[in-house]
Amino acid sequence: MASQSNQDYPVLYDACHHYPAIDHHAHPLLNIKSRQVLPIEGVVSEADGKALVDDSINTLAFLRAKPQFEKLYNLPGASWEALKAHRETLDYIDLCRRCFDPAHLQCILFDDGLGLPSDAESYSWHDQFTQSPSKRIVRIEVVAEGILCNILKPLLEHDALEVVPVLEAFNLQFEKVISESAEDDNVVCFKSIICYRTGLDVAAWGTPVGIKFDLLDIFKMLKDRGTIRLSHKAFNDHVVRLALAIAGKYDKPIQFHTGLGDNDLSLGLASPSRLQPIIKAYPKTKFVLLHSSYPFTREAGYLTAVYSNVFLDFGEVFPFVSGQGQRAIIQQVLELTPTNKIMWSTDGHWWPESFYLSTLQARDALYQVISGVVRSGELTEHQAVEIVQNALFHNANKLYKLKLAPYIQN
Q1: Of 84, 117, 259, 315, which residue is least crowded by CB atoms under 10 Å?
Q2: Pair 357, 44: CB distance under 8 Å
Q3: Its domain of life (predicted)?
Q4: 196, 265 in Cβ contact below 8 A?
């Protein structure tokens, strides 16, 4: 799709590029001391190792992003190696401001359970770059792993595990922590990464036998490795069901990683369509499908259209997907998804540039797609502006009960 001029629909252009946004799903930045611990190529790819450093720089997504890096660093025409070297000379806070100021992010919701806690800033540290205070997203698998470690570690010296009392203790503690989080004004929702662990085909009902066998295996894992990583289907499903019930009780949404991710997930189990039974089983709980569910965007749109408790995020594909691909994804989102149920996010993490590129590209793609719909005569410019403002701000503001008024800069 050819780029549209801001002269075509100036009010719509202004809404797409300057209306304040609520970034409803992101992760904290690396702190100043740890700013070099991860390769900057991770801004444009979920790959790792050689696939990240050697291959990602040969994608259309990277080739589109490189001139945007050049503009950000004020080094037109510089090589990628020169850009990376120059980046390390920049004052970190100044670099953050360069990235956040043009993004017009009024409020950011942070999942601070991604990892590297000692290398990352706190969620509230980011308030210096936004007009409204940041809020938290609680990752339920991290909570569950911490509780299990605390329960099981004192029992490691025993040869056998009494499963029933351990499971009862876990259930009580997990429900207590999740309920307390739901009552915390700084926590606006929950998140599950079960997509990475055992897939999205979460069983609506579980058998005690399967959960207990998984608990024995988790105990063995702790003995052998000294740590716990929940990747046991019956138990993971059990954790999600507990969280869904509490989220529904307190009317707190729960986000699910769907689709696009690194090679730790099984793509065949990442389609949001696999969530359909659990969505039906918990009609009072609001499900948010993250990351455009790419490449399963149309399946996600179908779920939002037929279930009142399902919402769709169109994030992470900026800047991981080519420009043409991004526009196609937004078009697929709009094919079926009710426009009061779409929300945008950066999925920004570790590097301030991830917020910059995601916002820049998303706003541009949104204008190109929506202005094309107006040009076709299917929407008025006024209707298009309302859709954009809702997608960037008002839908998330309502869903997460943020009670914010959009901060409009003069």
Answers
A1: 117
A2: yes
A3: Eukaryota
A4: yes
Q: What is the mean pLDDT of residues 98-124?
A: 94
Q: What is the DSSP letter of 4?
A: P
30 and 43 Cβ atoms separated by less than 8 Å: no
Give the separation between CA 358 and CA 23, rounded to whole angstroms.
11
Burial 265-282 (b: 16+ CB within 10 A, else e): beeeebbbbbbbebbeeb
DSSP secondary structure code for residue 343 in this structure: E
Classified by CATH at the fold level, domain 10-31+46-399 comes out as TIM Barrel (3.20.20)
The answer to whether 290 and 315 have CB atoms below 8 angstroms apart is yes
Q: Is the pTM of this model over 0.85?
A: yes
Contacts (Cβ under 8 Å, ≥6 apart) of 338: 304, 305
Q: Contact at 8 Å (CB) between 206 and 237? A: yes
Phi, psi of 106 (to 5 degrees): -80, -35
Position 3 scores a pLDDT of: 47
Within 256-351, residue ranges assigned H as helices are 276-281, 297-306, 317-320, 323-336
89 has pLDDT over 50: yes
The Cα 110–Cα 27 span in angstroms is: 5
DSSP SS3 for 342: strand
Banded pLDDT at 409 (limits 50, 70, 90): confident
Burial of 54 per CB tally in 10 Å (0-12, 13-18, 19+): exposed
Q: In whole angstroms, what is the distance from residue 311 CA to residue 131 CA?
A: 25
User: What is the distance between the alpha carbons of residues 242 and 135, in angstroms, rounded to a whole number?
Assistant: 23
Closest CA to 181 of 142, 148, 136, 141: 136
Among the residue ranges 47-56, 265-274, 318-327, the one predicted with the least confidence is 47-56
pLDDT of residue 264: 84
d(CA 72, CA 29): 18
End-to-end CA distance of the chain: 32
Report which secondary-structure segment, H or E, holds 355: helix 352-375
Nearest CA among 267, 138, 120, 127 for reference residue 190: 138
Q: Please, what's the largest Cα pairwise distance for the chain?
A: 74
